[in-house]
Write a structure and sequence with these properties.
Strand order of the largest sheet: 3-4-2-1-12-11
Distance between the termini: 72 Å
Radius of gyration: 26 Å
Shape: elongated
Length: 639
């Protein structure tokens, strides 16, 4: 294989960035979640400090040019790419202290940012075809990373220190080191002389891939289709994008301008008119946006790789560093809306990122560029990508449907559990630990809070679908903060109907609501309202309004259960309102029972309430550090 690659330097130019990107893309959610749940939630660092840390980490990308001068291009590539490979593996190992994993992810991302600038500068020296191989490698790396994410049910392998996921990452890392050992044409000298302004695109491009177009969980939540179906569309769009970017590199200039205009229009439309009414249309729009952003990325790379007869080569160090800073600003601004009051909706930032890509694409598409010949790769590489579709297809074939509901005997075990976005008290994403708590409890019906479906700062996992598949239970979701975070229900009994209802949330960063569901117990029905009230301790007046809305919803209806995280203690006015309305508290009188914070219990804020016709048989909590809340359990009998 070494001999083949030495004879085909273009293969190394394609494979090396593809493999590095495959590992690096998973570092972004790991780093973002570490910022949020380790530094922020666990260690109490504020938004200002977290923002400064992120800017420093990605600001290290400005060291690319000095590193290249100090080591030479080839050694700088070895240092940065090899560092990404090794640090990615270290970030996946299950250290007792997840802060170590976070530090590894931060350093790995810094080296990845350096690698992009050093490698692309080197490719520009080697020639336009080398830039083309780099562009194809970037898209293939996105495709391979997405395929692996789909294969693991959106629970990225970097968050799983078990043997098989770690083995996959090890194979990729070893392959990177092998590629670095293969002779590559040395690239010292003047780079392609077109200015590198367009490389600012790397920031918004990565933002759109992570948050929007490459996010399987997001698309599944938006469309209502299962993750395997959503992943087929995402991978299909990336495969088309791989064909498209190779096509861009071989088009005549007179066609480039028209293509740029069409792709720009498609990208803007995909970010401004996502259909939430017709599920299939949302899939098509996402595919269209993915293809458009990759085509524009290709146009920009084609310009960056071009030459002018009298031009002077410029390094991409500055636009690469600024692009990374732009990525940080977009990502922090996107999730800041759930922490503080800001004068914008975060979907505006998706459009802003798209407009930046469009602007840089239009700027790059105006120049006359040399033609590139990718006739062979135009078919070989997409054929390789089609093989990756076997992973979601396999997921589709093995997709579980819940078994027949158990015979209802008159009693049920009910649970409410705030999952802390999937993170344990140390700040590690551990979905399996949460699944075991639910499974070992024997609960028939579970109300869940803080369910994330594709949030980058929560690991990009589709928590609800993963748990539903892992536990083989029916599921329903009620979004509150945007379309991808909120409340959920898992049930061993069929869920006949659901309604997601908003609660009073004017001026609140995180909107609140309750998920109303009807369960079929086999001839009789149970009515559920799973909720999560406002969390700021000093703002009980807001919770009092929300509790009143819940009481109005109940309206003395029989066979009704309201449960969730009420963020209020038993002696509060809002809890008193529900008690006075006639609802029965599962832990009434058990004053010593606390549910939060599991690492240092000091208050009770999680409740199960039932209508008077329902009788409690038993009620208790389950101690576990898988979340910052304890699960509350109640065995009930329906009269």
């Amino acid at each position: 294989m070494r001999g083949f690659l030495q004879a085909k330097p273009g293969a190394v130019e394609f494979l090396l960035p593809a493999m590095v990107l495959t590992l690096a893309i998973s570092l972004f959610p790991l780093f973002s979640s570490g910022m949020t749940w380790i530094l922020g939630d666990r260690f109490g660092q504020g938004a200002g400090v977290l923002g400064l840390i992120a800017l420093v980490i990605f600001g290290l990308s400005f060291l690319a040019k000095p590193l290249r001068r100090f080591l030479c291009s080839y050694k700088a590539i070895i240092f940065s790419a090899g560092g990404v490979a090794i640090l990615s593996l270290l970030a996946q190992i299950g250290f007792a202290e997840p802060l170590i994993n976070f530090i590894c992810s931060a350093l790995g991302l810094s080296l990845f940012a350096v690698f992009l600038a050093v490698y692309l500068d080197s490719a520009r020296v080697r020639g336009a075809s080398s830039v083309g191989h780099f562009g194809a490698g970037v898209v293939f790396g996105l495709l391979l990373n997405t395929a692996l994410s789909a294969g693991f049910g959106t629970y990225d392998q970097i968050n799983q220190p078990s043997v098989f996921p770690l083995l996959i990452s090890t194979v990729i890392a070893v392959f990177i080191l092998f590629l670095l050992g293969v002779h590559m044409p040395l690239a010292e000298g003047p780079a392609a002389s077109n200015n590198g302004l367009g490389w600012l695109v790397i920031g918004p491009f990565l933002f759109l891939e992570l948050v929007v177009f490459g996010n399987i969980a997001r698309l599944s939540a938006l469309s209502g289709f299962s993750s395997p179906v959503a992943s087929i569309f995402v991978l299909g769009a990336l495969s088309l994008g791989l064909v498209g970017i190779l096509w861009v590199f071989s088009l005549h200039q007179r066609h480039i301008r028209l293509l740029t205009l069409i792709a720009s229009l498609c990208l803007i439309l995909s970010l401004t008119s996502i259909s939430e009414e017709v599920a299939f249309m949302s899939l098509i729009q996402q595919m269209l946006g993915q293809l458009a952003v990759i085509l524009l990325f290709g146009v920009i790379l084609r310009y960056i790789g071009g030459r002018k007869a009298d031009g002077v080569g410029e390094s991409l160090n500055l636009p690469n560093g600024l692009g990374m800073i732009l990525f940080v600003i977009l990502l922090l601004g996107y999730y800041a809306v759930y922490q503080v009051a800001v004068p914008y909706d975060n979907t505006v930032l998706e459009l802003v990122a798209g407009l930046i890509v469009v602007g840089l694409g239009l700027y790059s598409g105006r120049e006359c560029l040399p033609l590139l010949d990718f006739k062979g790769e135009r078919f070989i590489l997409p054929a390789m990508s089609i093989l990756l579709l076997t992973l979601p297809l396999l997921g589709l074939l093995t997709y579980k449907t819940p078994p027949a509901a158990p015979q209802f005997s008159g009693t049920l075990r009910i649970m409410t559990y705030n999952l802390h976005n999937g993170f344990n008290t140390q700040g590690r994403l551990d979905m399996e630990a949460l699944a075991r708590v639910i499974e070992n409890s024997g609960a028939d019906v579970v109300a869940l809070q803080e369910i994330s479906r594709g949030w980058v700062i929560s690991g990009r996992v589709d928590m609800l679908e993963w748990l539903s598949q892992r536990l083989n239970m029916y599921s329903a979701f009620g979004a509150t903060a945007g379309e991808y975070w909120g409340n959920a229900i898992l049930s061993k009994y069929p869920i006949l109907d659901t309604h997601n209802v908003s609660l009073e949330s004017d001026g609140l960063p995180i909107k609140r609501g309750y998920l109303n569901a009807v369960l079929d117990l086999g001839g009789r029905y149970l009515y559920l309202a799973a909720t999560h009230l406002h969390h700021v301790p000093e703002e009980g007046d807001v919770r009092l309004i929300q509790a009143g809305e819940l009481a109005d919803f109940w309206d003395n209806a029989p066979s009704t259960i309201m449960l969730g995280d009420f963020n209020a203690e038993p002696n509060s006015a809002e809890i008193g309102l529900l008690r006075q309305a006639g609802l029965s508290d599962s832990l009434e009188g058990q004053t010593s029972v606390l549910t939060y914070h599991s690492a240092d219990l000091y208050q009770r804020i999680d409740y199960i309430w039932v209508s008077p016709d329902i009788v409690y048989v038993d009620s208790f909590t389950i101690f576990n550090l898988a979340s910052d809340h304890l699960a509350v359990i109640a065995d009930i009998r329906l009269s």
